[in-house]
Amino acid sequence: MKILKIIFLFFIVFYFNSANALEDKLQNKITKNLRCLVCQGQSVYDSDSAFAVSLKLLVKKKIDQGLSEKEIYDFLTIKYGDWILYDPKFNKNTYLLWFLPLLIFLIGGAIVYKKLIKIKK
Amino acid sequence: MKKGLISFLIIILFIFTFIVFYKGLNKTSLYKPKSEIKNVPEFLGLSLFLKEEKDSKKIFNENKYYLLNIWASWCVPCRDEHPILISLSKDDNLDIIGLNYKDNLSNAKKFLDELGNPYKEIFIDQEGIIAIEWGAFGVPETFLTYNNKIIKKFIGPLNQNSVLEIKQAIK
User: Least crowded by CB within 10 Å, which of A77, B70, B98, B123?
Assistant: First the structure.
């Protein structure tokens, strides 16, 4: 009986441990993608400024309330604009940002291809 | 011919880069968030003096101009703008609501004893979460609201220009 109790205890401890870890992981993932607006070049995750500390707390609270990652991002973009996200959403202001690397890659590829053909000839 | 074209392109590129960087030099690096908040956010906050929870809805819904000022006793620019708030508080058309941001409460009370209290109501925001609801990211920040809508937002301490803007808006 005693052994059963101990096993039960272990089970509970480890169960909650992993639940917490999952939550922390999500919180870290979100705060790493948030720009700290008062510090230059730091994410909210990295910063200890008053603003970043509050944001970390807020993200934790929102996760506890059951909001998804996307819902939290939406909430924060309404408050602070797209700039708060390191991974900006795709819209009319950011399409160039998303397509330019692809375009440059294609142009580069085309140049290389042309040169290769020339060499073969 | 080809050499001429290349040096021409290089010069163009050089001038282009120069213009981009020169413009960048003059551009302010201070970012003002493009907040999309239009309505006054709803929040529950502890009142500084009464120590009881108050609902923001009961305050901002009235047909009146309100100035929400985020402040803290540790914030030096808040000290500078305080006389402006005191003079604005004499205006009958305007009620000033304070949001005490991450402050030591006894210091906050001392601050008000020393410099005067322009606020009709003060909410305590120990965690800084109410400030995020307003889209604020530092102290001091001030919002002018009417009929549950945010009309104007001032980042940083108020100055004479902002006083003029506020007075014009609440006429």
Answer: A77
Does the residue B12 lie in any domain? no
A82·B34 Cβ contact <8 A: yes
> Is it the case that residue B63 has pLDDT exceeding 90?
no
Tokens linked to B129: 């979460």
**Window A:66-105, CB contacts with B under 8 Å:** 77-84
Are the Cβ atoms of A81 and B33 closer than 8 angstroms?
Answer: yes
pLDDT digits (tens, 9 = 90+) for B25-49: 887 666 677 777 888 888 888 888 7
List CB contacts (< 8 A) between B134 and chain A. 79
A50 touches chain B (CB under 8 A): yes
B43 CB within 8 Å of a chain A CB: no
* Any domain includes B136: yes
R_g of chain A computed on alpha carbons: 23
Q: What is the pTM of this model?
A: 0.73
* Confidence check: pLDDT of B143 > 90: yes
ipTM of the complex: 0.74
Domain that holds residue B88: 44-169
Question: Domain holding B152: CATH number?
Answer: 3.40.30.10
Higher pLDDT, B72 or A121: B72
- Best residue in B31, B32, B38, B125 for a mutation probing chain A (most A CBs within 10 Å): B31
Residue B108 falls within a domain, yes or no?
yes
- Which residue in A50, A51, A79 is closest to B37 by CB distance? A79
Which residues are within 8 A (CB) of B33 and not within 5 positions of it... i.e. 6 or more apart? A37, A79, A80, A81, A83, A84, B135, B137
B131 within some domain: yes
Q: Could you give the number of structural domains in chain B?
A: 1
pLDDT of amino acid B75 = 92
